[in-house]
Amino acid sequence: MRALTAAILLGASLFTAGCASNSGKALPEEIAAAEVSVPAPASVSVITMVNTNTNFGEHSALLINGSQQIIYDPAGSFRHSQLPRRDDVVYGITPRYAQYYFSYHARFGYYVKVQTLEISREEADAMIAAAQAKGHVPKLFCATAISDVLNDFPQFADIPVTFFPGAIMKRVAQNEAVDTLIIREDDIGQNYRTD
Q1: Nearest to 66 by CA among 83, 41, 96
Q2: Is the dihedral of CA 16, 42, 111, 54 positive or negative?
Q3: How far apart are CA 167 and CA 56, in angstroms?
């Protein structure tokens, strides 16, 4: 059993190299000051950073729009001087900062797949609370944290807890209501969109 566990962790480390451990320590007052409400339908976006050579997902995150909009970036490396981060939750996410996050990850060799589903405001706020409750997620555990948060909700109940971001991405793609956006950045650093 130990050998199997070690093999799974080793395999996960090879495929989830995009997850880097770094926790934030924003103070409650900084978080409150940065809180942003986005006038759009409540939603959750599953964000997957995909290797263009292998088409394998290497990092997962969530963009959640409820009574505020946040990015849940477990074991992620994203930082911005204007955005407070507490553990793995990034606050103050306006549409502009969401695009900045996508661009931060889209680069030569990687594209970003954003899969958005409308959910109720109550579900969105419950997801935000679940992400906040997870605390700091260790390196290589981004997909397990994302799948754990999602599978508490009926429309994601059959997402297995997994080490593989691509497994989550493929399962979400099966939902007929999903709106998918792919963001690619060429070597000059210009983003373009493919639907």
Answers
A1: 41
A2: positive
A3: 9
Comparing C-alpha atoms, which of 91, 104, 133 is closest to residue 18? 104
pTM of the model: 0.83
Cα–Cα distance measured from residue 78 to residue 105, given in angstroms and rounded to the nearest whole number: 9
Query: Which positions ≥6 away from 44 have C-beta within 8 Å?
Result: 62, 63, 64, 65, 116, 117, 119, 123, 124, 127, 150
Amino acid at 17: A
pLDDT in tens, 112-155: 999 999 999 999 999 999 999 998 888 889 999 999 999 999 88
Give the pLDDT confidence of 45-68 residue by residue, as tens digits: 999 999 999 999 999 999 999 999
Where would I find the H helices in the chain?
Answer: 2-15, 28-34, 95-105, 121-134, 142-150, 165-173
Tokens of 91: 């606050």
May I ask the CATH architecture of the domain 2-194? Alpha-Beta Complex (3.90)
